[in-house]
C-alpha cells in the first residue's frame, strides 16, 4: 500500500475529526494502526478534536456526609450547580496532577546507629546468612552492607525486610494518599 495524496488527505481529515488510529486504519483499508500512527507522526499532525466519549454507566458515588449533602442541596435550590472535579477526556498518563503530597519520612534512626561497625560487611564477607542491604555509595570507600543475621530465604535482616517488602495494601494506601 502506498500513501497517495488522496489517502493522505483523508487521513488528515479523519485525524482532525478525532478518530482513533484504529478507526482510521479500518476506514482507509489495507493499512495497520501502526502505519497510521507513523504517517501522522511524519506529517507532524498534532492537535485534533477530542472524540466524543462513549456512553458509560454512571459510577455509584460513595455516601456523602450530612453537611456536604446540605450544602449541595442549598446550592441546587439557589439555581446553581455543585462544584465538581475537572473532567478529563482520553489518556491521563501525562495529566498534570495537583501538588503531590509528600510521603511522611520514615521515623528511623540514623544508619550509623543501626549497624555497629563490628556488624558491617563487605562484599567479601557476605554469606547467605548475612543481611545484604547496601549502605552508602558503592563508589566510596565507606560503602558497606548491613551484615546482621538474615532471615532464612530472604537476603535481608528483619529491619530491612520491613523496608524492602511492603504489603500490597500499604502500597495501595500510600498511593491513594499521594493521589489525594
Describe this structure in words.
By secondary structure, the protein is an all-alpha fold. Among the domains are: 5-43; 111-169, no CATH class. It is 37% helix and 2% strand. It has seven helices and two strands. It has a two-stranded antiparallel sheet. Strand 1 (134-135) and strand 2 form a beta hairpin. The protein is elongated. The model has no long low-confidence stretch (mean pLDDT 73). Residues 49-88 have a biased composition (Low complexity). This is Global cell cycle regulator GcrA. InterPro entries: GcrA (IPR011681). Pfam families: GcrA. Residues 47-88 are annotated as: Disordered.
How many strands? Answer: 2
Low-confidence stretches: none
**What order do the strands of the largest sheet run in, or round the barrel if closed?**
1-2
- Count helical runs: 7
What oligomeric state is this? single chain
N-to-C series of helices and strands: HHHHHEEHH
Beta-strand percentage range: under 5%
Mean pLDDT: 73
Global shape: elongated
Could you give the distance between the termini? 49 Å
Sheet with most strands: 2 strands, antiparallel
Nearest-angstrom radius of gyration?
28 Å
Helix content estimate: 25-40%
Q: What class, by secondary structure content? A: mainly alpha
Properties at a glance:
mainly alpha; 180 residues; GcrA; Global cell cycle regulator GcrA
Write the layout of secondary structure elements.
Layout lengths: L4 H12 L4 H8 L4 H11 L22 H12 L33 H4 L19 E2 L8 E2 L12 H7 L3 H12 L1
Antiparallel strand pairs: 1-2
Question: Summary?
Answer:
By secondary structure, the protein is mainly alpha-helical.
Amino acid at each position: 500500500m502506498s500513501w497517495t495524496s488522496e489517502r493522505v488527505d483523508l487521513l488528515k481529515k479523519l485525524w482532525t475529526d478525532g478518530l482513533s488510529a484504529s478507526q482510521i486504519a479500518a476506514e482507509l483499508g489495507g493499512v495497520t494502526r501502526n502505519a497510521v500512527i507513523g504517517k501522522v507522526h511524519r506529517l507532524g499532525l498534532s492537535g485534533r478534536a477530542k472524540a466524543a466519549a462513549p456512553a458509560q454507566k454512571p459510577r455509584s458515588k460513595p455516601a456523602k456526609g450530612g453537611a456536604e449533602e446540605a450544602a449541595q442541596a442549598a446550592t441546587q435550590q439557589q439555581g446553581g450547580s455543585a462544584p465538581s472535579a475537572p473532567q478529563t477526556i482520553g489518556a491521563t498518563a501525562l495529566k498534570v496532577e495537583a501538588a503531590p503530597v509528600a510521603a511522611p519520612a520514615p521515623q528511623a534512626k540514623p544508619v550509623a546507629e543501626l549497624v555497629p561497625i563490628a556488624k558491617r560487611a563487605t562484599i567479601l564477607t557476605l554469606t547467605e546468612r548475612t543481611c545484604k542491604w547496601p549502605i552508602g555509595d558503592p563508589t566510596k570507600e565507606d560503602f558497606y552492607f548491613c551484615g546482621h543475621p538474615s532471615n532464612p530465604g530472604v537476603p535481608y535482616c528483619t529491619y530491612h525486610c520491613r523496608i524492602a517488602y511492603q504489603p500490597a495494601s500499604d502500597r495501595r494506601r500510600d498511593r491513594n494518599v499521594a493521589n489525594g
